[in-house]
User: Fold this.
Amino acid sequence: MKRLILALLIIPLLLTGCGGERAQQTKSKPKIAVVISTLNNPWFVVLGQAAVERCEALGYEATLFDSQNNPSKEADHFDNILASGYQAILMNPTDADGSAVNAKAASRAGVPVFCMDREINLPGACVTQILSDNYSGCISLGQYFVEVMGRKAKYVEILGLVGDNNTWARSRGFHSVVDCFEGLEMLAQQSADFDQNKAMEVMESMMQAHHDIDAVFCGNDAMAMGAYQAILGAGKAGKIKVFGFDGADDCVNAIREGKVEATGMQFPKTMAETAATLADRYIKGERNLPKKMPVAVELVHRKNVAQYGNFGKIQD
Assistant:
């Protein structure tokens, strides 16, 4: 009888102990969502992975979402995120206007949004926007373009996504310099959505329509590499000079190999890590955070390319 009473006293204690241990084991970490415009581009893969890694280092569970350059898919991601208990969203927007709607929905739900690389047209919908200084970066690129091409040449321009503010900031920065020289004539301007394969097709069409192209300025490095493939296929490598923007490794290597003239080095890891750090500070109660944080762009060309690699500047 005494043994039975003792067993009845001990069993609840054991169950309580096991339950407490199980609860501790299953207690989940706070979650941060990382929503990237597309993972069909190595530059954005680095941006997303760097954000995830920084979040995890800060003690969060981080999930990466691919919007596939589709605002509707991005909206679906936001619906899922807001229903799943995430405490913050690091977003690389698909569209300056469409993504603003998604950010506003998150803000209303009490989930802070931090924009990386791309801007939305409703700044109040996000806590902070960490952006490359695209305009100034393309001023430098335009100046180098004039240095390489001289004051008389015929060129074409391949634009990125027409709904992305970066597309126009880069184009305007470039033209703020190049348009000052009447001898530099733009023969055509067309969008390729920041996509390598589309840029190759656009460049092929441009070369068919214009047989006297001296250079092409591309709104990102993926398109620059696509344009180069088209130029190579047409037997015009070395005759048409290629200029890109982003600082992607394949383009930096192409500069080393003499295939591409220059690019603007953005720093995706810096932007991603900054966004994750600010999100952590916000979650922990800090509210006095900057609304916009510009990240300088550095010109990469054949004379200084040895200083760059791995989507950034090589440390000495």
